[in-house]
Amino acid sequence: MLTIEALKAYGADVDDGLTRCMNNQAFYLKLIGKALEDPNFKKLEDSIAAKDFDSAFEAAHSLKGVLGNLALTPIYKPVFDITELLRARTEMDYAPFLKEISDKKAELVALGD
Amino acid sequence: MNNYSDAFAGGKRNILVADDEYINREMLENILSEEYDVLKAEDGEMAYEMIKQNRNTLSLILLDLMMPKMSGLDLLALLSEEPDLKSIPVIVLTSDQDSEVTSLKKGAYDFIPKPYPQPDVIKARISRSIELAEDRQIISATERDELTGLYTIEYFYRYVNQFDKYYPNADRDAICFDVNHFHVLNERFGMEKGDEILKRIAGRLEEVFSDTGSFICRKSADTFLVYCAHREDYSSIVDQISEIGEDLHTAVKIRAGVYSSCDKKLDIHLRFDRAKIAADKIRNKYSVSVSNFDEALIDAELFAEQLVDEFPKALAEKQFMVYFQPKFDIRGDKPVLSSAEALVRWSHPTLGMISPGKFVPLFEENGLIAKLDEYVWRRAAEKIADWKERLGISVPVSVNLSRAEMYDPELVDTMEQIVSDNGISTGDLYLEITESAYVSDSDSIVNRVKMLREHGFFIEMDDFGSGYSSLNMISELPLDALKLDMMFIRTAFEKQNDTRMISIVIDIADYLGVPVIAEGVETEEQYLALKKLGCAIIQGYYFSKPVPASDFDRFLLEKKGS
Description:
The structure holds two protein chains of two kinds. By secondary structure, chain A is an all-alpha fold. Chain A is built from seven helices and no strands. In chain A, helix 4 (40-49) packs antiparallel against helix 5 (53-70), helix 5 (53-70) runs antiparallel to helix 6 and helix 6 (73-87) packs antiparallel against helix 7 (95-112). The longest helix of chain A is centred in the middle third of the chain and has 18 residues, at 53-70. Chain B is α/β, with parallel strands linked by helices. In chain B, strand 3 (58-64), helix 3 (72-81) and strand 4 form a beta-alpha-beta unit. In chain B, helix 2 (44-53) runs parallel beside helix 3 and helix 8 (191-208) packs across helix 9. The longest helix of chain B is centred in the N-terminal third of the chain and has 25 residues, at 119-143. The chains are: A mainly alpha, B alpha/beta. The interface between A and B is medium-sized, with 21 and 16 residues.
């Protein structure tokens, strides 16, 4: 089960996230669970694979907002970076970013197991 | 319009959170739900629908910019086009600094960055925006006319004054637009249609005067004021506005009073008073739609006002003089004095002699005529009594009754009182009642005339030939003489001595068994022609102009001597 302590160990800025949730821990943890189900993770991967950078930017931008609000710093950072690159529609190899995001997400999911 | 008091209907104000991310919506709801009722929309279209549905109760919108179906910026643009939606304040949720500026320019009140700041910061920004919007709404509720959305008169004057301060040398016109006989439209088509017409006029005025520096307001019912850059001609503008009635199957006739290149030294109210004076000048002239103010109008208006103001004093000080013009019976070999008409003059202490043409119509309009006429009746009755007593001669005097007096239920009593106060008989006082009074509301007036006649008063139908009475009706009217309209005589003798119409009138009088009186007779030629045609009595400058009572003695002495 996901806990506040585990999130702290993961590197999340738990105090920041909890403040936005009016210090309601259960609510915070519930929202994190929901974030992991966000379809934008898949949309981001698929859009990059299809070289649809507009769609990829939308997905990254949305994720950035959500992960930032939840203060999940380790996964927020690569999402933030990829969002800025996609905003400029930079043609490059996004695979390392996607892998980083995927790894950090997997870590987060593992915290809850 | 988002109504200020409705916002509290449920105890808490309503806020809409429009964001496609579930987590963001939930997080904001969690922060705000203690103080607000939170509605949530997942995309732009859904947000738009919910805003429309809750337009009267929504206090604020929190708007994400990047949303499916309709972006936040597109939604902002849509809201700004609808007057009752654009007053709802919007706070934009964004993580991009570029978007912050764009959204503020598009009408957003404020922005909240992502990741969100401290909940207290969010709440403070929201409450500040709501406060601002509600304040603004209270102002705009009094600033705008509810029906048309135009400025109310107070704000209109305020904005015009502000404009003048910044552009003191701008050449401006003050215009007053009115709908001719708007109350008739209201009565014919109902208030709702009337309101529709007013709204259309307002809309058209906004189109026509869309340039910056033009100000428009609805002053009252159907009166609109415009302050704008000087234009040479307003007739095409009036035509354009009048077009709004085309599909309503009625003519909406607009008239404009223009105070052109107005004097900025005059108070703004006075400038629009002048426009209104110009507009009123053409109130009943259907062929003229634009009237320009000129100084002569203000002189006429001031003069009229002075006369009305001074009336009570003039009456008390006997400034009104009663003159007498003799009427002669011309049926015999020699003209014989038969009666006189009492006519009023105003001998004003500073303005000199004022002709009745200047004050009688004015007093008829405001009702003062009743007091003036009664004064004249009394002076005439006194004179009749005086002549009897002093000269031992009895000559009837005719006095004028205005239309309004014919509706006075006390009229017969008043007349009888005057007669008995002076010890004369009802047969001594002739009453001249204008033909148009008979026609306008025949039943009640005819009944009143019948009563007067039953009491012994002699009735002369005045201005006959100007009032279009039907021949059918005439035979039933109570009258003792027909008095030909003066214009009748004038035109008859101007146009190749065409006296055929006069001869018809004389035939009618013969048929009714009453004499014809011709007034305005000025020449011997006219006198002889009328005598030949069989006219009974003549009044006019040919015999004598109206003279003061003291000068009238000579006619009486002449008659007595003959």
